[in-house]
Amino acid sequence: MNKLHLLLFTLFIGFVSITGAQEKKKIKIEYAGKLTIDDENYPGAKILTRDDAQQVHIEHGGANMWCDKAIHYSKDNFIEAYGNVKLKQGDTINMTSKYIEYSGITELAFASGDVVMTDPNSTITSDTLYMDRTRQQAFYRSGGTVVKDSSGTITSKIGRYYMDQKKYQFVEDVVLVSEESTINSDYFDFYSDTGYAYLFGPSTITTEESKTYCEKGFYDTENKVGYALKKARIDYDDRIIEGDSLYFDNNKSFASATNNIKITDTINKSIAKGHYAEVFREKDSLFITKRALATTVQENDSIYIHADKIMITGKPENRIINAYYNAKIFKSDLSGKADSIHSDEKTGVTKLLNIPRLSKGDKFSVIRKPILWNLGNQMTGDTIHLISNPESEKIDSLLVFENAFVISRDTISENGYNQINGKRLVGLFNDKNELNQVVVTKNAQSIFYARNDKQELIGIDKSKSGSISILFSEGDINEYTRFNQIDGNLFPESRFSEKEKLLKGFDWREDERPRNVDDLFKDDPALELPVIKGLEDYVPQEDFFDESLKERINASRRVYKFKAEKIENLILHENEFDHTTWTKNNLTVTKNIMTAPNGKTNAEQLVSINNKNGQFIQVINKATGNFKFSIWLKGKGNVIIGFQEAGKDFTVYKKANIELTNNWVEYDIESEKENDGSSFRCLITGIKPNTELYAWGARLINVSSSKPIKKLTDLPKKVLPQKKKAE
């Protein structure tokens, strides 16, 4: 075969291949009851209608469509289908509507009028729906509903279905309603085969028993379990749970929380804090550890309990707090320590206990011996009970069982201590929660530093008796009375040896005394919080009508009746804040510093300079309208976004205070501008010298000018002129 023959053969094969490929893409009419021509209204088209036997049947690339009437532009490889339209792709995708227009070149279908698309896992309904067979995606932007039998019904303004992944992406006003719960979210990713839902932006999950809020979360709609991140909060009937990460199981009414936890009892006005917690709603129990702190909020003086572990159980009217190991209690006029603290809010009894450990020889530990401090008095014993009045929230009395010991430092002597010990102690408090009277019974011993009215030391009183009653005034011993005294005398200080100045069992522990709430934690080991890993940041949905789809549409010889263009962004250079269209005051811009929310381009950092608050502004030459301004922000600190008059008195139309986070968040505000004769400006201000700020994707749209998609009857029919062949 010579070169000429080879060239001709190659060209022939190539022509056949191209022709074959085009033929494969041609729309085929499998059946039509009637065919007519109407060049005046439909130039170059065949009008196909059904008969009594069956509908018009159309096939293209494995997809089949049936309708009552079709207009087929064979040269353009384009068809319009009317009346009871059904489209079927393989064994999985079925769509019905009143109208479909479809191009065999772009493989893009536009359906309108009671659109219903089903696959084995879910059903989409919408007034209009786009279906891209090339990318295997469906899209609506004017409101739609998705139904999944076991998961419920999802509605949103914008929705996109990735058929290969069985994945939905919902945007704006997203609501999922099922028998068990209702979910509201701004951005919602849903997998129809598993029922997994991923929530981004302000989101809530509401059930009969609870309401969960987060700005990033996951929920298994099949198994009713999930977890919440970023400003996470769960509201039960009488408890509010907050933390960096919350796991919840709505089947068991169970929740666990990790890092920076706060659990509020709204009925009993108590708060529990820590860094790991478990809540069983139906059992009315709460377990919290890692710097656990339980606070009972009182009108005049709150009570704080800290321990390695805290358990709160019981119905609201009968709550019990158990604090285990290295337990401490604090209020402004009283504090204490014990191995364990048990507090019954109904009876008002708080017990300081020394629990025997399982280890050999550890039935009792002096280190863990319960201790209380009130004003200048230290009280110890094997067990201590504080008895409060639940109604008045004041301490009434104190009981110390076994080895009761009271110590107070003498007001003048450097190393002098007033001391009383015995088997049991009963203490009474006055209305100021001050220890007013103490009675020590059984084998009572005492040492008192006796002073005259001039506070001069008379001597040291040491005695033994059956019991002793002491009256206090402002923390000092004012009067004491002995009963059944065995021996005792008043001795000059010079005749007292150092050993005799201390009763057996003396243990002055003032250095352990908590003076404030922070002191409750001073003995705790260093705490390193776990790094919470989980959901990735939200990636904004790319435009359905991206460049590749637009190229396919432009390659088609037909004009679709729908509008593919995006709403105009009135902001210029939305990602280039160093551009001159943006006015920058006390601000510098660093480019390519951070990956943008779309995961592809880079964002910019804006840094305040000259030790002043910075701002960046763009003036919009519009006089009136209803405008929506949005921008993606990330960082640390606070800023303000707003609309403002561009001139005159710089009237503020709308503003919002923003608390920046470590995640990209799209913030937006909307405001109506009346025709006041001035333009207006969008601004981000209040950028302080210590603010860390990254920005991307500024966007301003005129909401009042956004038009809904027209009805089919309002849309004109257009035909593109044929392209001229090259000479």
TrEMBL record:
It comes from the Bacteria. One of its GO terms (cellular component) is transporter complex. Pfam families: OstA_2. InterPro entries: LptD (IPR050218), OstA-like_N (IPR005653). The keyword Membrane applies. Keywords: Cell outer membrane, Membrane. The keyword Membrane applies. Residues 24-186 form the Organic solvent tolerance-like N-terminal domain. This is Organic solvent tolerance-like N-terminal domain-containing protein. It comes from Algibacter amylolyticus. The lineage of its organism: Bacteria, Pseudomonadati, Bacteroidota, Flavobacteriia, Flavobacteriales.
